[in-house]
Design brief:
- The protein is built from 27 helices and 26 strands.
- It is of the alpha+beta class and 775 residues long.
- Among the domains are: 178 residues, Phosphoribosyl-aminoimidazole Synthetase, Chain A, domain 2; 225 residues, Phosphoribosyl-aminoimidazole Synthetase, Chain A, domain 2.
- It has a seven-stranded mixed β-sheet with strand order 8-10-7-11-9-12-13.
- Strand 2 and strand 3 form a beta hairpin.
Length: 775
């Protein structure tokens, strides 16, 4: 046994991720030297992953209240009112570090953990959503060996992470309704795996993780505890080494979705039982996190008898049992006299549940092991007393330099890769070659191309009304005529080039996707994925993006009701792009309002809502033409103008004036039009370039087709509704442009710039991801 004296002399606390000052603060709180177990409790509970000690100062910027908010940050998940006594419960979290080492188990348990967060609130999970980031998939034949090796590693990570998420969600019977995947070199050694879960609960069924009632029993339910994931929260609160020594690699927990399915059903059955006082999942930091947080929130203490904890490995120490992150485990506080009744409910579902302690009134977390007190620590000290830091912040050195670079794109920059000449005549004219091939190349980019290979691995249910592939997934609220739309979004290239603007755009695009589906955005959950906060430039990125996110949330009336912070996402010479992923859930009051992105009928009018400018900084076209390099000012965004546009579109949808709606995002208008035509039963479109004439500046045509200007939608409207639609958008003062109409000939025609069969575009778009993975 390591003595308290040896802990201090050998600075063992440093190995656990604590600083000298933090160790001294622990000594001050306890009034003595901590023993090894107590030090372990503080190290995980004061880690960034659990305490947000580096980011609380930033998170306080977010608006968290609103008329629909029933539960904001601080519980397992946020809760918003959707009317008729029902509420939506949702949250987004990361499992980045584990997925970088063991992508299948890391991604699978990421899904498992976020599902537990939702059903621990008393909600039945309806759907999962995911946001993934990986390095580049493809490497040319003459690429250096390390580039090829990185590409192969990325393919492995993608395949395994998707398989892990699908295995867990499908095993629990929870469909994946939406998601996004982006590819950039910065994620090559540090992929991001973010998972979101959405559930439904009645207002009077909402539960919280709280301990109350002196003498009440503490029940452990679920999987037995092993040594997997010990110090996992601390592991997630530091940078990954480029080469992780085998003896320092944590044991990444493996998940069992079928066990968790039984665990969930047992928990949901007992939610209405008056014997249940509080419930919380054992996620990051395991048993110590759930027990100390529940005690602290209730103003109580707990005594835990660790010999009673189910163990699947021999000779486990108190330190290992308390810090293990074994999966599929829940902690409950139940009335003492009814504990057997609760245990019997778990037994009915094939789940082991045992009494491992009791609630006390002294505010202490007291642990007994082998007849001795092995830890005696104030619950508040673990859950609330972590030091808070306001890290130094400095504008990134690259910011002004990249912002000043010219991001414009000329016709000479577009060429046919088959001939490698700007004067290529493959398509009969120089313009047709340049514009058509550019569109085809964009449709093959991994970030843009069809993700059918991914979402085909996820199950659907009869309540999945709009599966992955449209702007947002839509799931029916069981037993009602309502539905929930859900999405996740973040263009990290924008956030890198301009963190504040990029933060605004992330929220705006997420809301845009919700509105295009016919829903009112309700609230935001976020996952802030950044590099090390010890770097002042990284902390500046974090601060600035939070300012942008906050401003956008206020304008769109979408309070932040929960989320997660994932820092230290860097491995090797550079950090990832700052990636604040935004999850939004929206409410569809009437199923007839559900709107999808596909064009519906020939002869429908095609409108563009919003303004197109010559904006290519951070765009997919810029990245494609410049070998991954990005620079220049990002697209402008006027939040209030965009809110008016979104409100007008939603009003038009609810009045039955809109056949389809799709937001214009990566790749610009050309890609958006092509996506609207995919799988549209042979439809085509004939589009005029506004103001096009023989003297038209070709730069305008490039911007028209490929700029990523914000706040824009492509909308189709039947001829009978055109006048009413134009009247509505005119009264709302929305910039509305009639571009053309859908056709029955299966051809996309855009002025004299593009004239190509939709089938040819579809072939490029649908098969690109699979081709990359098979190389």
């Amino acid at each position: 046994m390591i003595t308290p004296q040896e802990i201090q002399e050998n600075r063992i606390y440093v190995q656990m991720g604590m600083t000298d000052d933090e160790f001294m603060l622990v000594k001050k709180i306890l009034g003595r030297q901590p023993n090894y177990t107590e030090l372990g409790l503080f190290s995980v509970m004061w880690s960034e992953h659990c305490s947000y000690k580096n980011t609380k100062v930033v998170l306080r910027k977010f608006p968290t209240k609103g008329p629909r908010v029933l539960q904001g940050p601080g519980e397992g998940a946020g809760v918003v009112d959707i009317g008729d006594g029902l509420a939506c419960v949702f949250k987004l979290e990361s499992h980045n570090h584990p997925s970088a080492l063991e992508p299948f188990d890391g991604a699978a348990t990421g899904v498992g953990g976020i599902v537990r967060d939702v059903f621990s609130m008393g909600a039945r999970p309806l759907a999962a959503v995911n946001s993934l980031r990986f390095g580049e998939l493809d490497a040319s034949e003459d690429a250096p060996p390390h580039v090829k090796e990185s590409s192969e590693r990325t393919k492995f990570l993608l395949k395994e992470a998707v398989a892990g998420m699908a295995d867990y969600g499908n095993g629990m019977g929870i469909p994946t309704a939406a998601g996004e995947i982006q590819f950039d070199n910065c994620y090559a050694s540090n992929p991001l795996v973010n998972a979101m879960c959405v559930g439904i609960v009645s207002h009077d069924g909402i539960k919280k993780g709280v301990a109350a009632g002196v003498g009440n029993a503490i029940i452990y339910a679920g999987h037995a505890t092993g040594r997997d994931g010990v110090q996992g929260a601390s592991f997630a609160s530091k940078e990954l080494a480029e080469e992780q020594p085998e003896d320092e690699k944590p044991i990444i927990p493996a998940g069992d979705p079928h066990l968790q399915k039984r665990l969930m059903e047992a928990c949901l059955e007992l939610m209405d039982n008056p014997a249940l006082v509080g419930i919380q999942d054992m996620g990051a930091a395991g048993l110590i996190s759930s027990s100390s947080e529940m005690a602290s929130k209730g103003g109580m203490g707990v005594e835990l008898y660790l010999d009673n904890v189910p163990q699947r490995e021999e000779n486990m120490t108190a330190y290992e049992m308390m810090l293990s992150e074994s999966q599929e485990r829940m902690l409950l506080v139940v009335k003492h006299e009814n504990q057997q009744e609760i245990i019997d409910i778990f037994a009915k579902h094939g789940i082991d549940a045992v009494n491992i302690g009791k609630v006390t009134g002294d505010g202490q977390v007291r642990l007994y092991h082998k007849g001795e007190v092995c830890a005696d620590v104030p619950a508040d000290a673990l859950a609330k007393a972590a030091p808070e830091y306001h890290k130094p912040s400095r504008e990134a050195a690259y910011y002004q330099k990249l912002k000043a670079k010219d991001a414009s794109i000329k016709l000479g920059d577009l060429y046919c890769p088959w001939c490698d000449l700007p004067e290529c005549k493959c398509f009969g004219s120089r313009d047709l070659a340049a514009y058509t091939v550019t569109l085809m190349r964009l449709l093959e980019q991994p970030t843009i191309t069809s993700k059918h290979w991914v979402y085909a691995q996820f199950d659907k249910t009869e309540d999945t009304l709009v599966p992955p592939g449209s702007d947002a997934g839509v799931v029916r609220v069981p037993g009602t005529d309502k539905a929930l739309a859900m999405t996740v979004d973040c263009n990290s290239r924008y956030v890198y080039l301009d963190p504040c603007q990029g933060g605004k755009i992330a929220v705006a695009e997420a809301c845009r996707n919700i509105v295009a589906s016919g829903a009112t955005p309700l609230a935001v959950t976020d996952n802030l994925n950044f590099g090390s906060p010890e770097n002042p430039e990284i902390f500046w990125q974090l601060e600035q993006s939070a300012v942008g996110i906050s401003e956008a949330c206020l304008v769109f009336d979408t309070p932040v009701i929960g989320g997660n912070v994932s820092l230290y996402n860097e491995r090797g010479p550079a950090a990832i792009y700052p990636t604040p992923v935004i999850g939004v859930v929206g409410l569809i009051e009437d199923l007839s309002h559900i709107t999808t992105s596909k064009f519906k009928n020939p002869g429908d009018a095609i409108y563009l809502l919003g303004t197109t400018l010559n904006e290519f900084g951070g765009s997919e076209l810029q990245k494609m033409l410049n070998n991954g390099e990005i620079f220049g000012p990002v697209p402008l965004i006027d939040l209030r103008e965009e809110k008016r546009t979104q409100d007008a579109l939603l009003a038009a949808i609810r009045q039955g004036l809109v056949k389809s709606a799709h937001d214009v995002s990566e790749g610009g208008l050309g890609v958006c039009l092509a996506e609207c035509l995919m799988d549209s039963d042979g439809l085509g479109a004939k589009i005029a370039i506004p103001g096009e004439n023989p003297a038209c500046d070709t730069t305008n045509a490039i911007a028209f087709l490929f700029s990523e200007s914000q706040g824009r939608f492509i909308v189709s409207v039947s001829p009978a509704n055109q006048a009413a639609f134009e009247k509505l958008t005119g009264e709302a003062k929305i910039n509305t442009t009639l571009l053309g109409h859908t056709t029955a000939d299966g051809q996309l025609v855009v002025g004299d710039k593009i004239n190509t069969p939709v089938a040819q575009l579809t072939e490029k778009w649908k098969g690109a991801l699979e081709k990359c993975l098979q190389k």
